[in-house]
Amino acid sequence: MAEVILENVVKSYGSTLAVNRVSLTIKDGEFVTLVGPSGCGKTTTLNMIAGLIELTSGNIKIGNKIVNDLDPKDRDIAMVFQNYALYPHKTVYQNLEFPLRMRGVDKDKRHAQVMRAAEILGITALLDRKPRQLSGGQQQRVAVGRALVRDPAVFLMDEPLSNLDAKLRVHMRAELKHLQGELGATVVYVTHDQLEAMTMSDKVAIMNHGVLQQYGTPDEVFHKPANTFVAGFMGSPPMNLLSTMIEYVDGDPVLVGDGALRFRPKTPKIKAALQNAPSRRVILGIRHTAIPIVQNGAADDSADSVPAEIYTVEPTGDVTFVHVKVGEHLLVSSTNDLRFTGRIGDQVGLAFDESHIHLFDTETTHTLLN
Amino acid sequence: MANIPVELAVPVLVRPRQTLFQQIIKNRHAYLYVGPALFIMALVLLYPLIYTITLSFFNTPARSPDWVFIGLGNYIELFNHQLFWLVMRNTVSWTIGSTISSFILGMAAALLVNNRLPFMGLFKALMIIPYVLGHVTAAYLWRWLMHPDLGFISMFAQQIGLINRPIPFLQDGNLVMWSLVLVNTWKTFPFVMIMILAGLQAIPQDLYKAARVDGANVFQQFMEITIPQLMPVIMVTTVLTVIGNFNSFTIPWIMTGGGPANQSEIIITWIYGTGIRNLRYGFSSAISVVLFIILGVFSYYYVRTLTRGSDRSAEFEG
Fold first, then answer.
1. Are residues A191 and A332 located together in one domain of the fold?
2. What is d(CA A135, CA A18) in angstroms, rounded to the nearest whole number?
3. What span, in angstroms and rounded, lies between the C-alpha atoms of A130 and B316?
4. CA dihedral sign of residues A252, A255, A258, A260
5. What DSSP letter does each residue of A173-234 carry, written as one string?
6. CA of B212 to nearest chain A CA: how many angstroms apart?
7. Closest to A79 (Cβ–Cβ): which among B204, B213, B224?
8. C-beta atoms surrounding B196 within 10 Å
């Protein structure tokens, strides 16, 4: 196992910057996920770590050795591909054996290692089959087996679960995470699915347009997003982001949005952030859990409750998402109340939970808190 | 019985086998629809086939309209004919020689064109020229190029001092077969190239990426991925090329007409010569039947390769 370090890694295709000065430190035994929308440069970054794509500039170190000019085979890495890339004409056994055979491992040792990997993944019964005779989940397991058969320093995984159906994906997610824990493996994992990133990773690196947006634990990126992109990307449904203006009432800052949206913070930290804001225009970010619906709240609740109109209701079983309109703002709120009976057009109140409020600069989109 | 697992003890339901006639009766409406097509196929395929087979048992004197039944007489004459083994040897040299050389050249060209190098589009277009050129045009072109006195090849080679005397490509009995193979290779390799190129481009790039990570060098990638992945295409192309070469007539007929002294005579030109030139229809039909049987074997393998391919894809989809 080894540490992976990216220093100012750049990949350009002509004038297009696919990856722009990405720096990351992935510690030994960590499960790190690169996440972002398609075209954000996450797979390019992974392929550069693998050595399948050359760097334009910067350095990649694996186990304290600069590997920029090394072939993939000399980097001591193994990779799991999105469509598994199993050799279709070889049996499962031959697939698992391939990386060992290419490295000149002798036959007895190969057999022992293949059998060990097959046992770990529970595919011993499938060894004589060809990939096409396997289900998606089984193929996935073989692909993981081929990666772990020779004990690489780093595992690279490129959206390995995206070809599985939803149920199997949840199952394999847990299985991969468990396996990583057991092996103590260093894993760099690419996905576009923020839920996968949140559930599996020790750390998440969120990328957009080739630029690293934030690198931290799932908890950090979820609760302390560095900018509006991270705020909007992590979490489902995404964080509500509202354009507001700072106004002053009795010397205290008040955020004023469209319609009846007025929010007067009480916490000194938020007040200070607003007073120090470089511009009067700020983006107010708030997750659906922090603006619970207060039914009929508009009529009876205190001044803190913001009146809103129900746009649509999405029951999911345990949680009901309620999309509401406040002036021109469309927000997502939620309620755990199973007896919630709100209908489209109903007037409700939204209670803002001040401890879960985020503020971002309109120009730079960076957070104003911290 | 007691030890047999339950699933094996259950009697397998075997549907009683229907005769062809019963099947036709059962599916009579379907057969009605394909009837016209079947009729036309019978007219243009089955009728000539049966006619030729029948004819091969008769002697057909050129100056009389009568057919004289001679049983296996034509076949006995064929196998004892002084030219039979020469023609067979020539046909095998022609077919195997052209197939192997066009394969090597076509494969090399496909691997080259498949690289993302500059000017590959132009190069690819140039290489397809022999294939799109008509057979007759190509044959005349090469007959002139290979002409000992006026041909470009001999003249050029003499001018640069490579040889002293013209090369009698088509006049020398030892050289003529290989000259024809050369021309046929030139004509056929683009077909192989196109087929192999299509095969190469259908190989998922991820397999190569995986192999690189797994530690395979370029040669190992070729042997472990490219060749096995190309195998179905290689099989089909080989069988098609063999059948095509066996049957090809234009190039040898126009360039040499089987000469000199039958040294470039192959089955097809022999059939044409004995039948159309010497008017020995019965004997010529007997040769045709032998050719039909040989090609039948290849066609069987061709169809089998194709159907096995489709079975495989069905399995994959399942």
1. no
2. 35
3. 10
4. negative
5. HHHHHHHHHHHT-EEEEEES-HHHHHHH-SEEEEEETTEEEEEE-HHHHHHS-SBHHHHHHS
6. 6
7. B213
8. 24
CB under 8 Å to B17, separation ≥6 — which residues?
A: none
| Number of domains forming the structure of chain A | 2
The shortest CB-CB distance from A132 to any of B212, B214, B315 is to B315
Question: Do B213 and A73 count as a contact with CB atoms less than 8 A apart?
Answer: yes
Check whether residue A259 and residue A209 sit in a common domain: no
ipTM, two decimals: 0.82
DSSP letters along A89-109, please?
A: TS-HHHHHHHHHHHTT--HHH
| Chain A: residues touching B (Cβ < 8 Å) | 50-52, 71-73, 77-79, 81-83, 85, 87-90, 98-99, 102-103, 132-133, 146
**Which position has the token pair 């039979």?**
B84
Collect all residues with Cβ–Cβ distance below 8 Å to A238 and sequence separation of at least 6.
A231, A232, A332
pTM check: above 0.80 = no
Q: Least CB-CB distance to A50: which of B211, B213, B216?
A: B213
Tell me how far apart the terminal alpha carbons of chain B are, to the nearest angstrom.
Answer: 34
Q: Are A136 and A168 in contact (CB under 8 A)?
A: yes
- pLDDT tens for chain A, 370 residues: list them: 689 999 999 999 988 999 999 999 999 999 999 999 998 999 999 999 999 999 999 999 998 899 999 999 899 999 999 999 999 999 999 999 999 999 999 999 999 999 999 998 889 999 999 999 999 889 999 999 999 898 899 999 999 988 888 888 888 889 889 989 988 889 999 999 999 999 999 999 999 999 999 999 999 999 999 999 999 999 888 999 999 999 998 888 999 988 888 888 888 888 889 888 888 899 999 999 998 887 654 444 455 688 889 999 999 888 899 999 998 899 999 888 888 888 899 888 888 888 899 999 999 999 998 7
For chain A, say whether B209 makes contact (Cβ under 8 Å).
yes
Picking from B196, B200, B184, the residue whose alpha carbon sits closest to that of residue B131 is B184
What CATH number matches the domain at B75-133+178-310, 1.10.3720.10, 1.10.3660.10, 3.40.50.1820, 3.40.640.10?
Answer: 1.10.3720.10
| Whether A217 and A263 share a structural domain | no
Q: Which domain holds residue A281?
A: 240-361
Measured between beta carbons, the chain A residues lying within 8 angstroms of B220 are: 102
pLDDT, tens digit, for every residue of A239-270?
999 999 999 988 889 999 888 888 888 888 88
Instruction: Check if the beta carbon of residue B179 is closer than 8 Å to that of residue B170.
Output: yes
Chain B interface test: which of A89, A142, A149 (most B C-beta within 10 Å): A89
Of B210, B229, B312, the CB nearest to A81: B210
Same domain, A109 and A224: yes
Alpha-carbon distance B229 to B202, whole Å?
9
